[in-house]
Amino acid sequence: MLATVKNNGHNARLVAKLIEIVFKAKYGIDIRNMARFTMLDTTPSAKNVADHLGTEQGDCSMHLLKLCIGYGIGLKDNIQPNSVWDSESGSWNKEVTIVTPGSALEEGGSDIQKFRSLNNHFKSTKQLNALKTNQKALSYP
Fold first, then answer.
1. Do residues 16 and 55 share a domain?
2. Strand runs (DSSP E) across the chain, as ranges?
3. Is residue 5 part of a domain?
4. Is residue 30 part of a domain?
5. How many domains does the chain fold into?
6. In terms of Cα–Cα distance, which of 52, 63, 45, 44 is closest to 5?
7. The domain containing residue 126 runs over which residues?
8. Count of beta carbons in the 10 Å neighbourhood of residue 62
9. Once rounded to an integer, what is the mean pLDDT over residues 14-34?
10. Alpha carbon distance 52, 46 (integer Å)
11. Same domain (yes/no): 41, 52
12. Is 76 in the same domain as 44?
């Protein structure tokens, strides 16, 4: 896995090249021959970079976490888009079904504060270094 920031643009070819260079420098491997999936922070970028690397696009872990938190604290409706045939107009119409409605969650504010506290905890250099040490010991990225 690789986590890197490229603040000087989002051109897919350049992002893919950066990924190739970093993997070659850090691990001595040709990522084009080894990677099967590509995950980035934005879906269009992930698709474009995946195309450049010849890999399949995967959903971004942070995006999935954000969705889980949103659903978990009731901020989002879980919806399912459907196509429904309208015989009067003779065409398919898009319809959205709410699978699980969002609603006020009494603990939502408390949960958000816990996430903020966790984030603030790892902003400390000492705690971040301890996290990195544990990740390395457990072979986590």
1. yes
2. 37-38, 56-57, 78-86, 91-100
3. no
4. yes
5. 3
6. 45
7. 107-141
8. 11
9. 82
10. 10
11. yes
12. no
Strand partners, 97: 80
| Among the listed residues 80, 77, 67, the one whose alpha carbon sits nearest the alpha carbon of residue 100 | 77
Picking from 20, 37, 36, the residue whose alpha carbon sits closest to that of residue 28 is 20
Residue 135: strand, helix, or coil: helix
- What is the biggest distance separating any 2 CA atoms in the chain, rounded to whole angstroms? 66
Helix axes 108-121, 61-72, angle to 10 degrees: 150
Question: pLDDT tens for residues 43-89?
Answer: 566 677 777 677 766 655 666 667 777 777 777 777 888 899 999 99
In a domain, 113, yes or no: yes
Helix, strand, coil: what percent of the chain each, to 5? 50, 15, 35
Sheet strands (E) in 7-125? 37-38, 56-57, 78-86, 91-100
